Amino acid sequence: MQSSALTWLKDNLTFVVLIVLVLAISIYDHTFFSASNLLTVMADTMTLFLMASGVTLVIMMGGIDLSVQSVASLASCILAVYLPRFGAGAIGLAVLSGVASGFFGGLVSNQLRIPSFIATLAVSGVVASAAFYISGTHSVNIPGDLSAVYLSWAVGNFLGLPCEIWVGLVCLVVLNAVLALTPFGRLVRAIGSQERAVLASGIDVNRQKLIAFTLSGTMAAIAGVVMAARLGSGSPTLANEFLLPAIACVIVGGTAVTGGIGSIWRTYLGALIIQVVRIGMTFVGISVFAQQIVFGLLLVAAVAITMDRSKVSVIK
Amino acid sequence: MTIPDTAVPVLELAHISKSFPGVKALDDVSLSVRPGEVVGIIGENGAGKSTVLKILNGIYQPDAGEIRIGGNKVEIKTPRAAFNLGLAMVFQEQSVLPTLTVAENIFLGREEEFLRLGFISKAAMNKAAALELKKVHLSLPPSRRCADLTFAERQMVEIAKALSLDSRLKGQLTILLDEPTSVLEAKEVELLFSIIREIRKRAAIIFISHRLEEVLAITDRIVVMRDGKVVADLPSKSATVKDLHSHMVGRQLHNEYYREARQSKPGDAVVLEVQALGLAGAFSDVNFQMHAGEVLGIAGVIGSGRESLARCLSGHLKPDHGHIRIAGEELRQGSVLKASAAGIGLVPSERKVEGLVSAMTVAENMTLAALPKFVSNGIIRFGAERKASEDWIDQLHIKTPSTATPIGSLSGGNQQKCVLAKWRIAGVKLLVLDHPTRGIDVGAKEDVYELIRDMTGEGLSVLLLADTLEELIGLSNRILVMKDGQVTASLDARAGAKPQQLDVIRHMV
Amino acid sequence: MLMAAASAGTGKLAAVWRVWAPLAVLGALCLLISVFSPNFLTVSNLLRLLNSASIPMILSVGATFVILLGSIDLSLEGIVSVSAVVVSMLVANDVTGVAIGLWAVPLAVFLGSLMGLINGVLHVWLRTPSFMTTLGVGFAGVGVATAVLQGVTVRISDQNFRAISLGRILDVPMAVWIAAVTIGIAWVIQERLRLGRWVIALGTDELTARHVGIPVERTRIIVFALAGAFYGLGGVLSAAQFGQGNALIGQGRLFTTITAVVVGGTALSGGSGSVLNTVAGVLIVVVLANGMVLMGVPPFVQQGVQGVLIITAVAMSLDRSRLDVVK
Q1: Cα–Cα distance between C182 and C51 in angstroms, integer?
Q2: I need a labelling partner for C296 at 20 to 30 A (CA). Which of A177, B129, C65, C264 fits?
Q3: How far, CA to CA in Å, does B330 sit from each of A140, B202, B273?
Q4: What phi and psi, each to the nearest 5 degrees, are found at residue A276?
């Protein structure tokens, strides 16, 4: 059996890695370790975190959601297009599109018994088409005055901290509460650990899966809204580059693809690590392009480390 | 055909022992097969037959003893190695791949024989396959896909695969047939026997089956195993089914062990009614009733259909026809959700896979089947949950540091008690126990027996598939015996007038 | 209606349907489109169609082997990019001084198989699911391609090289000939090489395959490398077709490839399907796209249609008798 120190290290590896990285970069560049800089980093990470937070639930359950980037893009388009007409209602509409997309993905996966990665890949295509359609295939501007009225909760500052941090914090707390306090939260973990046992205990597993996918879509839509607010425009390809980093956040954070363990906190830490690694690489002079290589390999390494191989007899 | 006593055995197991954590699967097992001999191995579930096969197949390594082929000691590390040494196995679980052709299945992994300039010559492979198919009297085109074959035809292809070793082997061939007739009709069984009689000239054969009449008909010698030991090795000519039964059966019953004194009479209320239930390939035309507070034991070997019957009741399997009524209400079949909502719970044989979520705590596992009871306003009431689990920990004497301990760290017996507690918290009417004492120590077993008496005392009904016949007889009020998918007997097992094991085995094999 | 078709998963009729369905669907599609658009069944349109199907055909045929294993390959866009970029920089172009002519082709294909090898090795040695390893490698691949280019687009001036795609024999584009030969090679591998038979065995029942002595790990790695070679060839043809090498040349291909394989009838769970199924699947996808263009449907709708297509195809090919846990 491992010593308790080693066990502690394994459980908190993410946190340790993050601290080490921050310290390493601070040694290289003293200005990095300032309060304002660290806050900026945290704020920048928020949109990625928002996208990844819903996916965390799906991955904890043992599935995956490959549609989050399309859902976020769709939400940004809906927001930009309908804000002039419906005002605050456009925000609701955008989030609703995420709810519907997630629900649809879960339904397809459940009822047609299709593995989640294919179901969500397919839904991603459908949603992307919808995004192109609504936006007229180009990006749509959000006028500044409208933004000031309806979207000030997402941009700007509040009580000295960037708004994004508040939004992210609220989501973090709420989702954490759901995971820790609700029956759904417990079942997410249970289904990811040992789905057959949960089934045999008479639980409606399909319904829980549906809820998880719906939440994933919802959070992706919220992320899309915040992204659009920050950028001042919505576009059908807005979040396209965020799919892999979003999944990487979850896994680097310590949630295993084999399901059953993980938390929203970990995803946030994972997002921070991704962000800090990116900053670090830029500092050291690795080109933006080469950074992608690093991320790709980082993802593979993270999965390999966190995976629980005792659960999978044949690895396909 | 007489076989000289001095002939060197083709295959010999000498003093083989094998242990697993908590159980000695094989204890000083010795048996041998001489050239041209057909040896049968019989024994109850858990007697050690499948462990012997797995050792011969290279999947397990013996802890002690030797395997000798043609008199020479060998070590078998992989199934392919076993094959190369001349041990050809035909298993119960068919390993014929449906998307490949007959020829491809026969020569799977050995295609290099048919390579011409690096490419597989289908013509050559099919020609060779046709020769093998002739040996088993199967007149199929070798190029047919196995998905289009019947169960029986697939079984013959498997046997052809084993026989194909014959002309390609330098030494002696031993063919091991594991329950080869379970999917065959009477006519096909006859065919198989005639094939066996032909090939015995070239190979030694081991024939494992629970159908004792068949074993007596086709074998020269019969080895009886019980509790991991060889208890008899007798010539088939002079043996009778009764002799075999008595060798298969073991200890005397200790009625104290099964708390027979606490066995109560069942109530009058009919809790479960099963009518004309059938599932293709498993069982057919099953009818019975269960009363409140009754323990109904189902006896049968693997392939008798009892496991499928149990899983039809729990909702895991959907029967093809028939009715299941629980407390008078018709049950929607094939749905675990509906079954548990109707008050049927399953304590599964694979505890770690289906019974518990190992990573969750004791309390979380116990409330899993009744979560809504512990939720208010959408939040879990942790206090109530902890109290409920503490109550049951007390009541069932579950040894655990606390309610928040991960259930995976408890011993098997204590885990099982948690599973039982889970269903009691959920308030079930009928509990299906599938091998409930498998893998738990003696002390914990007795606790489980007490529990069963407690539950039935309170009016809960139990459908029991037990590990051993002894346990089944000791615990049950009534026993249904199944064989090859049919109910062959219904025996009264009231306290003080328990049937003998022989009485039950008579209908099982 | 979908559900009814989906639940008809077992039985002789369903088995026949499963084999002939892709061709039937293809035929029905062609008929339907020619009703709406008389231009469809002209020789020039059909040639155009086959031409646009060439690269997807090569990619999908390569991916078929991976899917037959029961795995998935999400790296093909990355491998196509790397191959296209490298080949464009090795033939006469406006950025590098190198011009090794057609020798660049086998080099690029080899590079593709090398990346595929990395896929396989990571998957087998790290015992990590293929969808994760290939996702990472694919992503890294696009990164490599982008890094090598440093934001520049390479324009190819070697006309011999471009003839690989644009040239014609008997008035049929070279790309189509190359695709046809590729299909032939893939067919031979699947049917006449042990590798092909072992792939199907592995995809059906790994345990049995291992027991009969099939080298499981080695086969897995080789299959990924093989697929990588096909993607490499696809990258070469892409570069020849567009006359340039850029890192986004493979974008969007993944979706189309998986759709084609699934629609063709090869099961995602492995062990069932064939290269010929994929050929039908690619044609269906391409015909559908061609038809939509002819009917004036906007391009972005195609993604959505493909999404619906995947869902329909997988749902209809489902084997309902296996009540396994679906993740």
Answers
A1: 14
A2: C264
A3: 58, 57, 9
A4: -65, -40
The parts of chain B modelled with pLDDT lower than 70 are 1-6, 22, 92-93, 250-256
Domain total for chain C?
Answer: 1
- pLDDT tens digits along A22-50: 787 777 777 777 777 777 788 778 889 99
| Domain range for C217 | 55-254
Residue B490 near residue B480 (C-beta atoms within 8 A): yes
Structure tokens at C149: 């280019």
Using the Cα atoms of residue B168, residue B173, residue B177 and residue B181 in order, give the sign of their dihedral: positive
Given an 8 Å threshold on Cβ–Cβ distance, is A292 in contact with C268?
Answer: no
- C126-152 burial by CB neighbour count: b if 16+ within 10 A, else e? bebbbbbbbbbbbbbbbbbbbbbbeee
In a domain, C8, yes or no: no
Res C327: pLDDT: 53
Quote the ipTM score.
Answer: 0.83
DSSP string over C3-36: HHHHH--SSHHHHHHHHHHHHHHHHHHHHHHHHH
Residue C13 lies in a domain: no
Is residue C75, in this structure, part of any structural domain at all?
yes
Contact criterion met (CB < 8 Å) for C205 and B97: yes
Q: Using a CB–CB cutoff of 8 Å, tell me whether B461 touches chain A.
A: no
Q: What domains are there in chain A, each with its CATH number? A: 4-311 (1.10.3470)
Domain architecture of chain B: domains with CATH: 11-93+170-248 (3.40.50.300), 251-343+428-509 (3.40.50.300), 350-426 (no CATH)
In a domain, C302, yes or no: no
CA distance readout (Å), A9 to A5, A273, B72, B361:
6, 17, 52, 22
CB B396 within 8 A of CB B451: yes
A198 and B358: CB-CB below 8 Å? no
In this predicted structure, what is the pLDDT of residue A269?
Answer: 86
Q: How far is CA C86 from CA A293, C82, C244, in A?
A: 16, 6, 11
Contact C119, C133 (CB under 8 A): yes
CA B144 remoteness from chain centre: 32
Give all chains having 3 or more CB-to-CB distances under 8 Å with chain C: A, B
* Three-class DSSP category at B232: strand
Q: Residue type at A250?
A: V
pTM for this prediction: 0.82
